[in-house]
Write a structure and sequence with these properties.
four-stranded antiparallel beta sheet, mainly beta, 1 helix
């Protein structure tokens, strides 16, 4: 059974950093293109970053490019998101999942990130 467990969120001032972690279980996930997504209050969930199954490609949304770094550890089935130079508009609940995951798919509980001005 596939599971996703996000952690590492918190409250920081603008300009600060956080490192999010996502533990995955299930053979299919370990071979999938994985992504980070976020949902701000009152808004739809949006794409943040993704990483290929073998880190062969990496993509970022324009809003985080140059500030966030996605990575993965295959041996530990972990996905990471290093977030630097955080802005108040980065506030939201962060989730990891397959890049192509839809609203109807299974999602973990996410981890809350709050950035104060």
């Amino acid at each position: 059974q596939e599971q996703l467990a996000e952690s590492g969120g918190g409250s920081v001032q603008a300009g600060g950093s956080l490192r999010l972690s996502c533990r995955t279980s299930g053979r299919a996930l370990s071979r999938s293109v994985m992504g980070w997504f976020r949902q701000a209050p009152g808004k739809e969930r949006e794409f943040v970053a993704s990483i290929g199954a073998w880190s062969d490609y990496i993509q970022y949304s324009d809003s985080v490019k140059g500030r966030f770094t996605i990575s993965r550890d295959y041996a530990e089935n972990m996905i990471f998101l290093q977030m630097n130079a955080l802005k108040p508009e980065d506030t939201g609940v962060y989730y990891c999942n397959r890049e192509e995951a839809t609203r109807e798919d299974y999602w973990g509980q996410g981890t809350q990130v709050t950035v104060f001005p």
